[in-house]
Structures are given as C-alpha cells and as structure tokens.
Amino acid sequence: MDNWDDMRVFLAVARMESLSAAAPLTKMDPATLGRRIARLECSLGAALFVKSPQGYALTDLGERLRDRAADAETQFALAVEESRGGAAALTGQIRIGAPDGVANFLLPQVCAALQRDNPDLEMQVLALPRVVNLSRREADMAITVSPPAAGQLIVQKITDYQLHLAMRADAPPAKTLDDLRGRPVVGYIPDMIFDKELDYLGALGAGGVQLASNSVAVQLQMIRAAGVGIVHDFALPFAPELRRVLTDQLALTRTFYLVRHRSARQSDRLTQVAAAISAGLVAEVARLERIARLTDAPVV
C-alpha cells in the first residue's frame, strides 16, 4: 500500500463494508471512495472487495491486507501514544463494546468513575445485541459472556454474576416453579440469541416466551409491566418494583470476560484502562448483587 492515506481509506471501507457508511469516517463522498478503492485494486493487480448491492465484502486477499493494515495502524497509534508520555496519562478516546445488560446497568457507573479520575479520557460504550468484532476495530476492547475461541485476542475473566427469576413484588406469590404456569414469561427472542450462555429457557423449563426482546433493558421493563423472567441480579436495583423469587429452585451463574486485540498488549494506556474497567466491574457487580439480595421477596 503506497501511503497512509490509502491505508486509511481501505480500512474504513473494510470495517464499514460499504462506501456510504465509510464516507463520514474518511470525509469523502462515496463516489470518491469508490474511485480510490478501484485505483488501489488496480495498483495491486487484484480485487480486495466483492462488490454487491449489499455492500463491499473482503476477498481473501482483502482480509489479509486488512489485518496487516490494522497492525500498522496500531503501531502508528502506539508511537503517537509513546511520544505523548505513554502510560503516564490516560487520555484520548476508548470505546468498549458490550451486551446491553452490561452497557445499561454496569458500564455507565464504571466509565463515569474512570473518566472523573481522568478528565482527558473520552469513554464510549458500544451496546450491541451481538458479539463486537475487534478485528474490524469496532471497539478497543469488549465485554463478552463467552470466551472467544478464535482470533488473535487477549481474553481474561472479569467476574461471575448471578441470575434469578424475578417478578413484581405485588404479584401473587409463588412457592414452586409450577405456581408460575399461566403467567407470561419474558425472555430473549429465540432466533436472536447470539450466545448460548444467554439461552435461559431450558433452566426455566418453559416451552417459549410470551413477551420477548433482544434487549435486556426492554425485558426488564416487560417484567415490570406484567410477567416473570430470568434477570441479572445486578439489574434489579434499577427496578424497585421487582423481587427475586424461588432463589432456592432456580439460580444461574454466568461469567464476564474482557477481550482485547493482541496488539493492545503493547499499549500501556489500553492495559491501564482494561485493568480499571475490570476492577470497576467486579466492584459494581458485587455492590448491586448485594442490594438485590437485601430486597428478596419473603418466603411464604
């Protein structure tokens, strides 16, 4: 690739998979981007993208070039960071990808505390109902509920967390799981469960859900309106109308992992932020779960 500008244009299209989506990143119009990509392919004598009405998909060569270009981009960013003092300052922009449960109920407090201690740090939370693609640099790091098995990634366990059945405190009491029959069950849209660890229906013994969403925050609101469902304990303090129920009959444990691209190991700044995010999540999960236990429904 002849210059950094070619690399910037190529990476933008590779990551966004369309000219129109990449245009704001490059400050170029789609037609200009198309000409730049065509010129780059001509100079290489090979196609980097398969073009279709759905967008620009990378060829095998394009994927190899994307990985090399992304590594070069990271090395450049690290050199800039080092020239500014490296690990001594937490500054600049950090984007964290996460499922919406973490994004809604945990990361706002953790990121706010980190930014308060580092006023020149810009924290961004990317909430997605899918796994964040770090290879495409969608984020600097990601929180997941399953450790990825492939890719050039650094994976570390953050903490376990608990989930229990919950329903409104003023709903008719339940002594067994059978007492919940006939009440609307809240959960994920079955064909939109993007991680097996989010499939709770087997544990509940329910054949389906009557109220469903791909968003944990929406599910919580559905249970507040009418229904019963499996809820993160750390989300319950945000819904004071709800109580954990039948905790001795159904309890789930899941795990959060922090995932970074392997190149992040070379960045003192990203390492410091990752450590702070992990410590903050451990403390926040413990704090909120403690509150949830204190407000359990009484045994009747």
Automatic annotation (TrEMBL):
Keyword Mitochondrion: no
GO process terms (BP): DNA-templated transcription
Residue ranges constituting the HTH lysR-type domain according to the UniProt record: 1-59
Signal peptide: none
InterPro entries with a match to the protein in the record: LysR-type_TF_proteobact-type (IPR058163), LysR_HTH_N (IPR000847), LysR_subst-bd (IPR005119), WH-like_DNA-bd_sf (IPR036388), WH_DNA-bd_sf (IPR036390)
Superkingdom: Bacteria
Pfam families listed in its UniProt record: HTH_1 (PF00126), LysR_substrate (PF03466)
GO molecular function: DNA-binding transcription factor activity; sequence-specific DNA binding
Keyword annotations from UniProtKB, A to Z: DNA-binding, Transcription, Transcription regulation
Record family assignment: Belongs to the LysR transcriptional regulatory family.
Protein name: HTH-type transcriptional regulator GltR
Upper taxonomic lineage: Bacteria, Pseudomonadati, Pseudomonadota, Alphaproteobacteria, Rhodobacterales
